[in-house]
Amino acid sequence: MTNSLRRYLIGAVLLLAVVVSTTLSLVTLSYFIGGIHTEQSLTLLNVARYAEANDLDDATVLNAHVTRDWHKVPQAVRQLITAAPQQSYRLYKGMSNDFPHADQSQLAFVLRVEGQDGISRYVSTLIQPEFYDSPEEQQLFVLGEYPVLTVVAIACACVLLFVLVLWGITWQITKPAQRLTRWAQALGPESATEPLPDFKYRELNELAQIIHGSFEQVQHSVEREREFLRYASHELRTPITVIRANSAVLAKLTEATNAKQSRVQQRIERAGKTMAELVETLLWMSREQQLQVAENVKLGALVQELVTELDYLRQKQQIELRLDVDDSLWQVAKTPCRIVISNLIRNAFEHSSKGNVSIIQQQQRLQICNPISDGESNDVGFGLGLKLSRKLAAQYGWQLNEYRDVGLHRVEVRFK
């Protein structure tokens, strides 16, 4: 399956956006939580210094409790932080499982501070959502009541915004690219002479110029080959006609001569006929825009006629022939049909090893089978006649298929 450049680009950039948004969200949460811990640590440290300066014990200052004895720490705090802090200046935290989603949920902080007087003090604070129920107090929380969810929501919104922007940019880029694709697909001999359309972006316009230039080069090359084929075929017609005419005259002059001269004359006649059919095939192949109109043709009678004309090849190869045709009438282009069938029969007779050649015609279907040696290459069973017939059949929309089995080459053509 072919990958789409557009999908790949969108997927890669979207993945990058998700990774960046997730990373920044995690960093934001880390700084947010770290800021809370730092703020609480500084607050509790200042309370401890204040208590030391004023010689306070088991007192409450700025909503924080300070005491020298762990057991005098409020019971609600000790329920969340069960063991006394062992490390000084380290913030210990404990929370209920439902914090901060329930009104009775609690979050406790404890800081152990070593005073200059050598006394350890435990400073603790307890946070409960019910303490900040008024709208004025709720405004103190910049990220709302649920800061983690707020950060996640902001991250999702950023990703969604990025996707929309990316889709807009991709659409602006791919729309001209799709126009370029449709233009290239519709490019033909007639549209090639029209001015190049503007595809909005310089790179696409350069690509269009390259495609147009390549098409013109191929078109000129094909036209040169077609003209050469047409001119060469026309020029060959005259010498071939002279050869066949003189061969016919020679046949009348040598009627009473020996058999050896007669065989030479017959070979000249057959070679001239073969060249004439090849030239006719090449001429029809050069007429891509001038297809012959279909007419009523009895395919079976046409096959029998061509088998009779080419029977000398079969006799030369010493092969047996199985011929099975019907007398159905079909609408086909007669001359191209004759050329295709003649080339296929000639190919079967010329490239067959000893054995039986079968020619079966049923309605619009013609099947020709000829034996080949297992050690022979594919060119032996196919031949030039089959290659020319394949091109001519494709020109008229006929179905020509070829198969190679063990020791057998088979060709099927449907004149539809």
Structure description:
The protein is α+β, with helices and mostly antiparallel strands. The chain folds into three domains: 154 residues, no CATH class; 82 residues; 122 residues, Histidine kinase-like ATPase, C-terminal domain (Heat Shock Protein 90, 2-Layer Sandwich), CATH 3.30.565. 56% of the residues lie in helices and 17% in strands. The protein has ten helices and twelve strands. The strands form three sheets. Strands 1-2-5-4-3 form a five-stranded antiparallel β-sheet. α6 packs across α10. The chain is rod-shaped and about 150 Å long. About 3% of the residues have low confidence.
Secondary structure layout:
Elements: H1 5-54, E1 59-61, E2 64-67, H2 75-80, E3 91-95, E4 107-114, E5 120-127, H3 135-138, H4 147-186, H5 202-253, H6 259-285, E6 295-298, H7 299-309, H8 311-317, E7 320-324, E8 329-332, H9 334-350, E9 356-362, E10 365-371, H10 378-396, E11 399-405, E12 408-414
Parallel strand pairs: 7-9
Antiparallel strand pairs: 1-2, 2-5, 3-4, 4-5, 6-8, 9-10, 10-12, 11-12
Helix pairs in contact: 1-4, 4-5, 5-6, 6-9, 6-10, 7-9, 9-10
Quick overview of this protein structure:
This protein is α+β, with helices and mostly antiparallel strands and 416 residues long.
Mean pLDDT over all positions: 78
Sequence stretches where pLDDT stays below 50 over 5 or more residues? 137-141, 377-382
Instruction: Give the strand order, joined by hyphens, for the main sheet.
Output: 1-2-5-4-3
The tally of helices reads: 10
Number of strands: 12
Please summarize the sheet with the most strands. Answer: 5 strands, antiparallel
Overall structural class, as computed from helix and strand content, comes to alpha+beta
The whole-angstrom Rg is 48 Å
Q: How far apart, in Å, are the first and last alpha carbons?
A: 33 Å
How large a portion of the residues is in β-strands, by DSSP E?
Answer: 15-25%
Q: Order of helices and strands, N to C?
A: HEEHEEEHHHHEHHEEHEEHEE
Shape: rod-shaped
Helix percentage range: 55-70%
